[in-house]
Design a protein that fits this description.
- The two termini are about 25 Å apart.
- About 5% of the residues are buried.
- The mean pLDDT is about 95.
- The chain is mainly alpha-helical.
- It has four helices and no strands.
C-alpha cells in the first residue's frame, strides 16, 4: 500500500485501505467537488471504490493496456 495514501488529500494520509475505498472521489488529489458531482450525475460514482470498479473505466483501461 506504499504510496497509495499520497494520492489522497492530506486528511486521508493515516487512513487504511477500507477507509480509502469508501472515501468520496474528491478525496483523490486533483479531483474537485465539482468533478465529483459530474461523476455522480453521469455515472453514479460517489466513492473511490465506485470509480475503481466502474465498468467503463475498466474497459478503457484494458484497451489502453492492450494498445501499449
Amino acid at each position: 500500500m506504499a504510496g497509495i495514501n499520497a494520492k489522497f488529500d492530506k486528511e486521508y494520509l493515516d487512513k487504511g485501505i477500507d477507509d480509502l475505498a469508501k472515501a468520496p472521489v474528491e478525496a483523490l488529489k486533483g479531483l474537485s467537488e465539482s468533478d465529483a458531482q459530474k461523476l455522480k450525475e453521469a455515472l453514479n460514482i460517489k466513492t473511490v471504490k465506485d470509480l475503481g470498479t466502474n465498468k467503463f473505466f475498466i474497459w478503457a483501461q484494458s484497451v489502453a493496456k492492450l494498445a501499449e
